[in-house]
Design goal:
GO terms for molecular function: 4-aminobutyrate:2-oxoglutarate transaminase activity. The protein is an alpha/beta fold. It has helices at 3-10, 45-48, 57-69, 81-93, 108-123, 140-144, 177-190, 219-230, 281-284, 299-314, 317-336, 367-380, 404-422, 428-432; strands at 24-28, 31-34, 39-42, 100-105, 127-131, 160-163, 198-203, 233-237, 261-264, 275-280, 342-348, 351-356, 382-383, 385-387, 393-396. It contains 14 helices and 15 strands. Helix 11 (317-336) packs parallel to helix 13 (404-422). Residues 17, 47, 107-109, 112, 135-138, 204, 208-209, 237, 239-240, 265-266 line the site of the ligand Cc1ncc(COP(=O)(O)O)c(/C=N/[C@@H]2CCCCNC2=O)c1O.
Length: 437
Amino acid sequence: MPLVTRDAAAIAAIEKLRFGPFAARSGNGRHLVADDGRRVIDFSASWGAASLGHGHPALVEAVGRAVATMPGASLLSLINEPAVALAEKLLSITPGGGDRRVWFGHSGSDANETVVRAVEAATGKRRVIAFVGAYHGGTALSMSVSGHTAQTHSPPRAGLFLLPYPDPYRPHFPGAVGEAALAQLDYLLATVCPPSDTAAVIVEAIQADGGLLVPPPGFLPALAERCRLHGILLVCDEVKVGLGRTGLLHAFQAESLTPDLISFGKGLGGGLPLSAVVGPAAILDHRTAFAMQTLCGNPVSCSAGRAVLDTIAAEGLVENAAARGLELANGLRRLADRHEAIGDIRGRGLAVGVELVENRESRAPAGSLCQAVVYRSWELGLLLFYVGARSNVLEITPALTITTAEIEEGLAVLDLALQDASSGRVDAAAVAAYAGW
Ligand SMILES: Cc1ncc(COP(=O)(O)O)c(/C=N/[C@@H]2CCCCNC2=O)c1O
């Protein structure tokens, strides 16, 4: 029986974000073998989590060794060296002064949940500022400080204020997008969100699920400066765009700022469940037994994380992301010469968004076309998904190990998918069967 059929009968719909009958039997490098045996180039890396691709030898060896020796399965009450070594590594590669600590979890959601709980508990402040369009997680608290349009089923938490994230392609308000957002922040801080009761601002250096939005130069440093002036902690959510993906080790390094706390996830584990928070001891040591999950800091996931960081360094994957990202952007611009539906190409390194529009003057979002492109791409041998407040932004976040040839391979398939989708040669009813987001 096909995997798609078995999935429908066994897996809960509440955890499905499906764009088509996409099912894989195996993976190797940057390719997947679909359930029907087809070879598919993976431009998603499972929403950026498979940072080393599939089956990287370094990961296989590290995880195999760790699971065979297992110094326990939890850091909560038994110290293990892989967790301590990974924490030491994370402290050494993240900017920040003073006495700092590392918390380990399993997902970007629990990392951001822990950040919010810890900054509020340690400072005694009750308010948090985040941005419309941000996806900080799928757990109750991480969701409640998110601003993604796909999460309106869950109300925001008390004390949350959402600002517009600067989107140069779609300005929300008159004037320069960065200044408009900062003016709204100033107004909030001067009125209903007093700094004396505001624990943190949480922000992505590139807003990923909101549509790979890249803020204008100067916005993030200006935001950081306001946080500093007002004594508000600055949290950078690096879960999707961190750890080399943008062609820098940290996405926030594109501008001169040093966050107070940083959350990591997805690519940190290379496909294994692993997240981390790096921040001041004053916050992360404020008490014991505060943010615990049994498998936090388990040696297998932490060994995977160490192998990921070591491989990123040993194979020059930050530099590869920068170089391949330029090739990807140039290739997409060539596609834009042939496809009017491509309204905007943006991002950094291997964190790239392609916004599809009905026409370039109106910039009306082309959500249906985007869904059809993703569906057709799979049929033709390319896996990618879409994001954005209007579900019209193709997200390209391949493994950091991707090669020039594989970039070209994926772009060639995307070209055909755009042609077919734009010409109405995709079965609309088949696409409509998948809700996407
Ligand atoms: C910037 C950022 N921060 C935190 C998260 C939550 O990470 P987890 O899904 O590992 O809990 C995410 C997760 N993003 C979603 C995961 C659900 C499917 C949609 N695509 C994503 O990348 C994220 O992008």
